[in-house]
Amino acid sequence: MKTESKFESDDIIELSENGKLERIDNLLHSASDEATAGIGFDAIKRRAVENAALEKQRKHRRLLSYIAAAACMLLCFGVAGTSFIRSHKPWGEGDMSLNRHTSEPETDSNTHSPSAIPEIGSIDSNEIPKQYTKLLSIGVPTKGGSSQNEFKPDELFPDELPSYMERRIDINGTDGNVCSIAEGKDDTGSSKYFDCSLVESAPYDLNKGEVGSFETDDGCVFYWKLDDKRCMRVRFFGFDNEEASKLFAELTNDIMNKRSIQ
Amino acid sequence: MAKLNFDKIYNDYSRLVYWAAYRVVAQCETAEDVTQTVFERVLLNESKLARLNEPQLKSWLYRVATNLALDITRKGMRERLDAEPLSEEIPDESPTPEAEAMERNRTERIRAAIDSLDEAYRQVILLHYYSELTVREISECTGISEGTIKSRLVRARMLLADKLKDEVDLR
To answer: In degrees, to the nearest 5, what angle opens at C-alpha A182 toward C-alphas A180 and A187?
Structure first.
């Protein structure tokens, strides 16, 4: 506590009325010292230090909560922004991106990732272009001049499928139809996948006996309209377009000519 | 960056802050609360206050103490000094109960006399004698000229001498 007196410097005490003012000056000094001595300055200081420390902690917590809230807001904006961008692509609707891919030659089939092989029937509708990129009328399988309603795609594999592709018959999880599947990896480690199954409808209109096809990021998909209720869907992944078309033609010829007519 | 020496500031100016607050609130407990709050603010604004020189710091402390006390007073918390229990004001080292009672009475009368002065005189008496500020320092804190402060001090002392005639004559 400051104890030294500063009163000497103030030349304001006038000796008057028999030193009355001097006496009142002394009286005030002693009264102020007594009054000040009774003040608990140490306790006040301790409380001030404690409260300031608490306030600093509160400020720190408030700052952290503001940062957390700001991070949450940024995350929300990010999620909302990403959703918006996905649903409003600058070149139009989302599936247009696939159309751009379809116009480009397949050059990355050898780098096809094994993990990219889709499950049967799992092709995302977003990946389907607005229309087939190729249409071809090949007719329908017949027996004795009439349409083959009993046509079933059991064990329908193109003969030219690479030998390293393991073949099996499976049940399509989405509609319970029988599905012929072949998959494997070539010498370079690129995955190849093929499947063939009957589905109720094609994504876009087809006339009976007509084949519509389009390309996706990973391969080619063919729809062959067999009758009013059925289409044959054939998918190739990891194959280039030409190779897939050749294998599909082989398969359809095989069906049309002999093997699948039951 | 300069670092604030809180202990030194507290030792040098706690008395100034307390009596500056007391001048407004006229209540010991409230003046203590104001003093505590002022020094909390000192601790929370260390980096800013470290840039101030001594007169600026002193002026800042006086202003904050006065403003806080005025806020409290405006909120209707002001109580007059004569409502204070006297025991808070008097140290325990009084030698005998009789002497202690005399001291209490004397201190009480002096404080009552100060409180009865007009605000202008009361201010200079409290700042000069209780906060131990020189005339120049009072001028720096309050913005009142040194000449005015000196004349107010003389006038205040004369008024007090008149009010405390018995005390003055006894000494």
So the answer is: 170
Domains and CATH numbers, chain B: 6-74 (1.10.1740), 94-163 (1.10.10.10)
Of A17, A20, A35, the CB nearest to B130: A35
Q: Which residues of A touch B161 (CB under 8 A)?
A: 17, 20-21, 23-24
Closest alpha carbon to A217 in A236, A242, A233, A199: A236
Return d(Cα A197, Cα A172) in angstroms, integer. 8
Structure tokens at B81: 């000094």
3-state secondary structure of A184: strand
Q: Where are the domains of chain A?
A: 10-37, 101-257
Q: Tell me the per-residue pLDDT of B34-82, one tens digit each, with 9 for 90 and over.
A: 999 999 999 998 888 888 888 888 889 999 999 999 988 887 654 444 4
Name the region of A216 (left: φ>0; alpha: ψ -120 to 50; beta: rest): beta
B151-170 CB burial, b ≥16 within 10 A, e <16: ebbbebbbbbbebbeebbee
- pLDDT by residue (tens digit) across A206-219? 888 899 998 877 78
**pTM attached to this predicted model:** 0.48
